[in-house]
Task: structure prediction
Amino acid sequence: MYAKTLYMPERPPYEKELITHYTKDNVPNFFLFAKDKNEDQVEQPNSSFVNKIGALIPNPRLSYRYIDGGGKSRRLSKPDAFYMLSDKYFVLSEEHEKVIEKYVELSKQYAHKVDLSVYSRLNGNELKNSQARQIAVYGRTIERVKSELAEFGYSESVIADILVSFLYKRDPNKKCKDLLWICYGDLIYENLKKNSENRKYASEFHAQERLVQCVDCGEWFYVSNKNTKTYRCKNCQIDYRRAFDRERKRKSNVNE
Result:
């Protein structure tokens, strides 16, 4: 359409068929990187110049499963969520599910967003600082994510505990952990330092209690080693007891 004449030329039928053939297809494969598209939104890579660039750039897979300890490789154990929590007695509840759902949504939306424009305002010494570099690259993302999660009324430390419990206890195979560390990594790091310094107490705490998985919601929680009858977390136990009492009263009324 021309702005002045408002004239729209008619497209020949053979041209329309050709153009429609391409507009119905997915976007080119390089949009995985250019526009943060998903695998199901792009075409398979072909022999075009742009698609060849991705094949030429090596992307080695890094493994952190082993650490070099005095010339001897030692396998790292899985992260213990206990050391990441600000409240060692923290337990996920149903009211935390909205925070988790929002976080998963934000992770898909912001996980790969970067603000490279801030780099131009930092000098060389500032860029050597990892925290300054993180703020430079993810500054806007951090602000937006924290702002949206804060709307649920929890403090940042509680939000961090919710997400740590979700990503490292309830669903450890979930792959959206990057955003957690970008936004709340400083809090988790302080928790790790504090709990590691208090390792003796933590060890004694674990020695006296054991982990049990709730038979209803699947949440892991600690109980005393002497407690062999608890199979539900606190919230599920309350719900179970209410349902049990209702059923007992119903049967009692029927018998009368």
Summary: The chain has a mean pLDDT of 76. The longest helix spans residues 234-255.
